[in-house]
Specification:
The complex is a heterodimer of chains A (167) and B (249). By secondary structure, chain A is mostly helical. Chain A is 69% helix and 0% strand. Chain A is globular. Chain B is built from 3 helices and 15 strands. In chain B, the strands form 3 sheets. In chain B, strands 1, 2, 3, 4, 5, 6, 7 and 8 form an 8-stranded mixed β-sheet that branches. In chain B, strands 9-10-14-13 form a 4-stranded antiparallel β-sheet, with no helix packed on it. Chain B has 249 residues and is of the alpha+beta class. Classes of the chains: A mainly alpha (167), B alpha+beta (249).
């Protein structure tokens, strides 16, 4: 395997779970999330020689989020409850409840609001970086973020009590 | 813990790092294909002539081998003014270069959209799509240098049926997606029929396309959306064509 390919495999292996999860937070659907992450990684690999020395993760993230904003122009309200997570620590019931709650409140947002929330609070990016990745102004990021948080509060931005503690 | 921290925590605890289901080998295979396509598009006629271009995820179109480089003038199709149906302002001809170039069928359509000295142009090229005898042409988005040299950026063609059936055909979006590019490709395509106006819808907003009739078949109307009207790579929510009386086609 060429050195560049080996580097890409290492990168993709490390980054794919977060990219898929970010896409899941934006779509609420695991299959769509995996498709979107795959698309982002395809484009990242296609540009690998140009971006490998820079910020390939940022490139992949930007492609992913913009792809999703462009693809889904309405809030996605699918809650794939049949697709239970595999157990890896913690209580599955708690995790399912948290996921359902999270998708429920995120489902009140527009795709762009969701993108801003995911970039700001999942990837922990500063507003200026979010603006660059979405190709909008910092002012737009601030106003979108503020609007999104208002909607999330109205939808009940307080996580459910862990069920396990009540058993 | 405040509510934003709560949101952040929830987004993290629902991560499923143990499996993603992504096919890395498939990703790299498709990535190589995208890379090849970009390289082909970026190097102009010689490379385009020998490469396969996949459009729409299905059929493979093969652009016909070029004839020897053809020096001489390249006619530029007049742009139709959507309000009058008459020729627009960019009807020009340039003097041709001697370097190899894509071989457009019919006139090259100038748009007036500039990237430094280069101009965005559209042209029809011949293609072969295996098992699709009804598809013989594709529409290329390219750039024309001041010397008349053409560089193909993107090609779209039908992947089913006939390239002359009435109605809209494949629409081309900037292949770079929303990643900033120095030469973004305007959204473009063609319509077969007596279209006098083509109007797209995006986010509830109507955007008017610019039109030019193909010199070889005036029923084939090439259209594109100026980047100032529609940001390249922005998917359209809808698109309609209207005849000179405003009737929907």
């Amino acid at each position: 395997m060429a050195r560049g390919d080996a580097e890409f495999v290492e990168f993709a292996t490390a980054a794919s779970a977060r990219l898929v999860h970010a896409a899941f937070l934006m779509t609420g659907n695991h299959h769509q999330a995996e498709d979107a992450a795959q698309t982002a990684l395809v484009r990242t690999y296609a540009s690998w020689s140009r971006i490998r020395g820079g910020d390939p993760y940022g490139y992949a993230r930007s492609v992913l989020v913009n792809h999703l904003v462009d693809t889904w122009r309405r809030p996605i309200r699918e809650y794939p409850t049949e697709d239970l997570p595999e157990r890896h620590g913690g209580d599955v019931a708690d995790e399912v409840a948290t996921r359902r709650w999270l998708l429920g409140i995120l489902g009140t947002l527009t795709p762009r609001e969701r993108a801003v929330v995911v970039l700001r609070h999942y990837f922990d990016l500063p507003e200026a970086q979010v603006a660059r990745e979405l190709d909008v102004s910092v002012g737009t990021v601030k106003s979108t973020s503020s609007r999104a948080l208002e909607k999330l509060r109205a939808a009940g931005l307080t996580a459910p009590e862990p069920q396990g503690s009540r058993r | 813990m405040n509510e934003v921290d709560e949101l952040r925590r929830a987004m993290r605890v629902t991560e499923r790092a143990d499996r993603t289901g992504l096919d890395l080998a498939g990703i790299m295979r498709e990535g190589r294909r995208v890379r090849r396509r970009r390289r082909v598009a970026g190097t102009g006629a010689v490379a385009v002539a020998v490469a396969a271009v996949v459009i729409g995820g299905g059929a493979v179109a093969r652009i016909h081998p070029p004839e020897p480089p053809a020096p001489g003038p390249v006619a530029t199709a007049p742009v139709v003014d959507p309000t009058t149906g008459g020729p627009g302002p960019t009807a020009t001809a340039d003097s041709g270069p001697v370097e190899p170039r894509p071989r457009p069928v019919g006139a090259v359509v100038g748009t007036g959209i500039r990237y430094g000295d280069d101009e965005r142009v559209f042209y029809v090229v011949p293609v072969d799509v295996p098992e699709l005898p009804g598809v013989t042409i594709g529409l290329a988005a390219g750039r024309r240098s001041p010397t008349g040299g053409l560089t193909t950026d993107y090609l779209v063609n039908d992947v089913a049926g006939s390239d002359r059936r009435p109605g809209f055909h494949e629409i081309g979006y900037d292949p770079q997606g929303r990643v900033p590019s120095v030469t973004p490709v305007p959204t473009f395509g063609y319509f077969v029929g007596p279209a006098a106006r083509i109007v797209g819808t995006v986010d509830g907003r109507h955007v008017e396309a610019r039109l030019a009739r193909w010199s070889e078949d005036p029923q084939l109307v090439i259209f594109w959306f100026d980047p100032g009207v529609l940001t390249p790579a922005t998917p359209l929510d809808g698109i309609v064509a209207r005849d000179a009386r405003g009737g929907r086609l």
